[in-house]
Amino acid sequence: MNNDRISNMGKYIINQGEVTTEELSQKFNVSIVTIRRDLKKLEEDNIITKIYGGAKARSDKLKSFEQRENLKKDEKAHIISIAKNFITSGDRIFIDSGTTTENLINDLDNNIHLTIFTNNLSIIKKAASMENVNLFVVGNYYNHTSNSFTYWGSSPTIKDFNIDKAFMCTSGLTIKDGLTNKNPIEQRIKSTICSIVDHIYLLVDDSKIGISSLMTYAKLEDIDTMITNKRPPAEYLDFLRDKDVKLEY
Fold it and tell me: Can you state the angle between helices 21-28 and 32-44, rounded to 10 degrees?
C-alpha cells in the first residue's frame, strides 16, 4: 500500500469536493482496482465517502471556495493578466463561477461599460459596485461550496440573451471528454452558455489538463480560445492546432 499516494489522493478529493474513479486513475496513474482499494482506506480513515463511480469529501473535511481560491495563485494571476485583454468596453460577457474567473473582474477598470452575466456571488458583489455595468444574475439557488447560483425548478432563460463572450472555468480538461464539471446543476448553466455565446474563452491552469470530471459541458474543439499558464502537452498542442483553437499562455 502506497501511503504517500493515498495521502495525496485524500488531499486531492478534499480540494475537488467530488471526483470519479476514472479521474483519480488518470491523476495518479494507477488502475481502477488500485483506486478502489485506496478509496476504501480513505473511507475507513473518515476522509471521504464512497459514492457510485467515485468518492466525495466528508462535509467536515471539504475545502471551502475561499481555501481553494488560494491554490496556484500565481498561475491564476498569469491567466487573468491575459484574459482581461480580451474584454473591451460595450461587451456583453458571461463570467463563469470559479476560483480563476472570480478574480477576472477585479482586474477590470471600474469605469468600463459592460453587460455582465454571472452566477458567482463574489462577481455579483463586485459588478454591483461598478456604475457602468448592467448586471444579470444567472440562477436562483445558492450553493455555498461553489459560491455560485444554480437553477432549481424552472428552466433557465439565459438562452434568450445575446452574449458576445464567455470566460469559462473547468474542473478538468481532456481531449476525449472535453470540458468537465462535477456539479450536475452547474453543468446545466455552463452547457447552455457555451451553446449560445459567440466566443468561448477557457481559463484553465495546468493542473486541470489531463483530468476528467463527472460531466462534460463542452467539447474541447467547441472553445475558441484557451488561456493557460504554461505550454500544454504536445498532444494538446496538436489537437488545438488541428481544430483551429487559439492558444494563449
Answer: 110
pLDDT in tens, 45-82: 888 999 988 998 887 766 554 555 566 788 999 999 99
162, 91 in Cβ contact below 8 A?
A: no
CATH-assigned architecture of domain 1-61: Orthogonal Bundle (1.10)
Cell readout for 19 is 471526483
Question: Look-up: residue for cell 475558441?
Answer: 224
Taking the C-alpha atoms of residue 127 and residue 108, their distance in angstroms, rounded to an integer, is 10
1 by DSSP, 3-state: which?
coil
Distances (CA, A) of 136 to 92, 95, 123, 209: 10, 11, 11, 31
Phi then psi for 169, rounded to 5 degrees? -115, 170
Nine cell digits for residue 193: 452558455
CATH architecture of structural domain 68-247: 3-Layer(aba) Sandwich (3.40)
Q: Is pTM, for the whole model, over 0.85?
A: no
